[in-house]
Amino acid sequence: MNANELRKTYIEYFGAKNHEIKKSFSLIPDDPSLLFTVAGMVPFKNYFLGKAPLVFTRAVSCQKCIRTNDIENVGRTRRHHTFFEMLGNFSFGDYFKEETIKWAWEFLTEIIKLPKNRLYVTVFTEDDEAYDIWKDKIKVPEDRIFRLGKETNFWEMGTVGPCGYCSEIYFDLEGGEKGRVSAEDIEKNDDRFLEIWNLVFTQFDKKEDGTLGELAQKNIDTGMGLERLAAVSQGVYSNFESDLFMPIINDAAKRTNKKYGEDEKTDVSLRVIADHCRGVVFLIGDGVLPSNEGRGYVLRRIIRRAVRHGRLLGLKKLFFSEIVPVVTHIMEEAYPEISERKDYISDIIKMEEEKFGETMDKGMEILEREIETMKKEGVQELSGAVLFKLYDTFGFPAEITEEILEENGMSADRKGFDEAMEKQREKAKAAWKGFNAELAEKIPADVIEKTGITEFMGYCVLYDEGCKVLGITGNGKELVSAEKGKKVEVILDKTPFYAESGGQSGDTGILKGEGFEIRIDDTQKFDQRHIHIGEVAVGTVKKGDLARAVVDEERRKAVMKNHTATHLLHSALRRILGNHVEQAGSYVGSERLRFDFTHFAQLTGKELDAVEAMVNEWVQESGEIEIEEMEFSKAKEKGAIALFDEKYGEKVRAVSVKDISMELCGGTHIKNTGQIGFFKITGAGSTAAGIRRI
Ligand code: GLY
User: Model pTM?
Assistant: First the structure.
């Protein structure tokens, strides 16, 4: 059977057994503990845990998955992949071991007709129940049933979550009549014995501290890689020789005037390109864009690894983006949306290919020279500094450099790399926090040094008494005093004035003291000082004076409404367009808000209407805004949207509206969404490929 038929046959088989047929969910899970969807059961996690009401108790799906734990092996073996599809049938407190085993066996031996004498099964060492079902009910001869330990027969999703003992079905690639097979053969000889189906009896919930809690209900989670099934069903040894991959490999081979199967080194590169093109197509199709962090970094790494293997095959021109239509053609029956997005996907790959292509040859030259020198000098390990330079200047993901070194029997100083990276992050962070080019011109460095960090009072109050004037500047000079008409910048020891950051504009208002009044038109941040920018309106202000700081309340309240509305908009976009939506910039003023985010297509009128309606519904629900300080890790665990993947300081500020939104945010917010009154989208557009603006 071809892969399309296998996928369909599987879904229909379980559909006929009253399983709810679910379309594949996104590769980006609705689960902050995971980077990607790694198994068919991931989208059903809350059903297993009994946290979501069960509208059905059986489900079947063919789920898109990405696993990235051993990318460096992809291409070198017959069956490592980044992207793969997992066929799975699930029971949430419905059927258990007996039906699962019976149906799996029937599907393999009677529906797709794999020969019984090439199948072997395993059970967890102590699982007599599963053993007996295989032996007595299915009548599998005992010399084909093996008991294996936790290593192979215990399945878990990640470090936490639903998990359990499993029973696995293996296919003998070399034929059934080759003498006695042992448990060790099954466990170790994966060239011959291919695990095709994993039946997990999901009974436990693994906790953060490693302990196993019993789930309230007994569940079933099965996983069968479509690529493996296609290979055995089509009588080929390697997943790459199935109809899911061969057309891609052939297309890439044609571009290089090479043939698959003639030279192992060439084959490795062709397999890398074929696998990675699938992964990249689906990642970009689900809204991931290349970047230096999180999912975007994984995507970048995959694209660059493929481009490098293209170079190894002599492909100098852009080629990777051109293979996209071959992938979308193979996959469009099951994933029509991929074909719809193929031009967009090609464009994103092309940009990344061009960017890396420009610096890659230069970087390769440096690395090759370095390897030569190391060989001469008998050095084994590339320094962290060079590893970092290749990353930072030439765009080589550290893992790719390490892979090249490994091909030469060498390694790299990863610790040194991490240190260099950390140093650069610190530098960037300091620059980001402190640097404001315009203010740097206006305020002499020694004024900054003489004044301390400003204490911000404006989360709770909009005016404050007794704020001490620590510094005054005007025309780029420090002033001891300033009189009526003078344009000034004022630094206080404490202030209710919010300084522009995180998209929220700075406050305006008045500083009033004995014999003076200063009109404040803007507040900016400079090296953790709030800089009040304005003009002396009455009298003379002197350094050391005390002032009453009064924020323009009406304006600030309007800003707060827009800021809370920005969070609601972000949440609505994620719900309507998908979890790939990430904030890419914002402006929050008193008169309007503007929001930039990642998404692959222009929003349709219908989508815009839906977003607007959803936000307005939340406004009308008058949900309370809760603000809480907590550890970064705790906030992420609770599902907060964090703009950056890095570690924040010890404590973060989580702004949430119950069941609607939770973001890490330093801005100021209203108390209740009802205060927003009404939300209206006045315009939608795009600022760059993949970045939309509302
Ligand atoms: N969830 C079962 C598997 O991934 O094998």
Answer: 0.79
